[in-house]
Specification:
Helix content is about 60%, strand content about 5%. By secondary structure, the protein is mostly helical. The chain has a three-stranded mixed beta sheet, covered by helices on one side. The N and C termini lie far apart (about 135 Å).
């Protein structure tokens, strides 16, 4: 009897909370004048500057679904979050309003047929990037986004997938990065994470599962002894190592094969550097991937190994590995150094540990540099054949030398074996 009364009381409290939240949100969806919506698109941009474009996307979501109230969504969120938060009213309101901003932006960014002329964000690149950063910093839990997305999903549209739409929305913030959809098993493990977890897991699993990390020594205990910093890019070039841009699975997919360092292109801009800093801070707090891997942190540390001066940046830029969107090689060098200092301040671990993502790359590079033949051949080529004219001169001199030798041989033979 007591359990039945408890259930009835809980149902009554939930209903009261649902009514209260709906009475708070629904009037704003139909307001004019001082409300969030007017017939003047210019006002949307002023609201955006105040970071209040949220109700606009909630309203358009309801219009797309032919609904007039948020009650269906509020009821689902109250049931989902009932035992997780004490301030259930504030949390449900925040999850619904900001969650609608996220899922509708994801849809409109890729599904252009859903866009409207009065959209306050998609027509403004600066505003769009600001929203991206806001969502990365403080998005609702991924579990809430999944719930809201499923409630508003268009089953007939195969493109309507939260994971793929969200990753497509954030891809351009990391240059030419191609964020791969995260496997469903990883999604269940990060349901209480946020969008930053999603981006981090999309960057890392390809190299964790199939790439660089799997190429380590079979005995990981030996990695600690052999692991050393590699030389800078200009010094590696002098040792005969070539740098080549290639299209890896993600920007983190760096390989070293047959004396060639293969590195995906990185577009270095203020946006890219800001995202990398967010990911580094995220990994410092929560760590990312199995075995406590910090893939993005290790990626920046590896780049800093290669870059010790603007000349190193210039070398990587000439090989297409770095795309300079900042204006000068000196600025890129300074910003990479700043990211490296951030890592040192967070981890206070200047040396490479055996769990370093690119440990096998470091070992292979150092082994290559220890072979004297490779170094000698590289110095010979760099010092004497560093231009086409040098090579042509060498070939011409070799041909003349061979002709002289042949002429000398014939002269000697004709002396000792004169023709009669």
């Amino acid at each position: 009897m007591e359990s039945e009364m408890s259930e009835i009381n809980e149902m009554y409290r939930k209903r009261k909370i649902v009514d209260h939240i709906c009475s708070t949100i629904d009037p704003k969806l139909h307001a004019n004048g001082d409300g969030f919506f007017t017939d003047e698109p210019e006002k949307y941009h002023s609201l955006l500057k105040e970071r209040k474009p949220f109700h606009y996307y909630l309203k358009t979501l309801l219009q797309r679904r032919n609904e007039t109230s948020v009650r269906r969504y509020v009821e689902a969120f109250v049931d989902s979050l009932w035992k997780e938060y004490d301030d259930i009213v504030d949390q449900v309101t925040k999850h619904i309003v900001k969650g609608c901003l996220a899922v509708e932006l994801f849809r409109r960014f890729k599904m252009k047929h859903l866009r409207k002329d009065d959209d306050p964000v998609l027509g403004d690149v600066e505003a769009l990037n600001q929203i991206r950063f806001d969502l990365l910093r403080s998005s609702p839990p991924f579990e809430s986004l999944l719930l809201l997305f499923d409630l508003s999903k268009n089953e007939a549209d195969p493109q309507d997938s939260l994971i793929e739409l969200a990753l497509h929305f954030f891809e351009c913030m990391i240059g030419h990065c191609n964020l791969k959809p995260v496997h469903i098993s990883k999604i269940h493990a990060m349901r209480h994470g946020n969008l930053l977890d999603l981006v981090c897991n999309a960057l890392c699993p390809q190299i964790l599962d199939d790439g660089v990390v799997s190429q380590r020594n079979s005995d990981p205990e030996n990695v600690e002894e052999d692991l050393q910093f590699i030389n800078y890019a200009t010094e590696l070039q002098e040792a005969g190592i070539k740098f080549k841009k290639w299209k890896g699975d993600t920007i983190l997919d760096i390989k070293f094969e047959n004396g060639v360092m293969k590195i995906p292109a990185l577009k270095v801009s203020r946006t890219t550097l800001k995202v990398l800093r967010h990911l580094i801070e995220h990994e410092a707090r929560f760590r990312c991937g199995p075995s406590d891997q910090r893939c993005v942190t290790d990626y920046v540390k590896f780049l800093k190994c290669l870059v010790n001066s603007p000349k190193d940046v210039e070398l990587l830029r000439r090989n297409g590995i770095i795309e300079n969107w900042l204006g000068s090689d000196e600025l890129i060098f300074e910003d990479l150094s700043g990211l490296d200092r951030t890592i040192c301040d967070m981890h206070r671990q200047p040396q490479m540990s055996k769990s370093f993502t690119y440990s096998q790359v470091l070992i292979n590079v150092n082994c290559h540099c220890k072979h004297r033949r490779s170094v000698w051949m590289a110095k010979l080529w760099n010092n004497y054949f560093n231009s086409p004219w040098s090579l042509i001169s060498f070939i011409a001199a070799t041909v003349l030398l061979l002709l002289t030798i042949i002429q000398t041989v014939y002269s000697v033979l004709s002396y000792y074996h004169p023709k009669h």
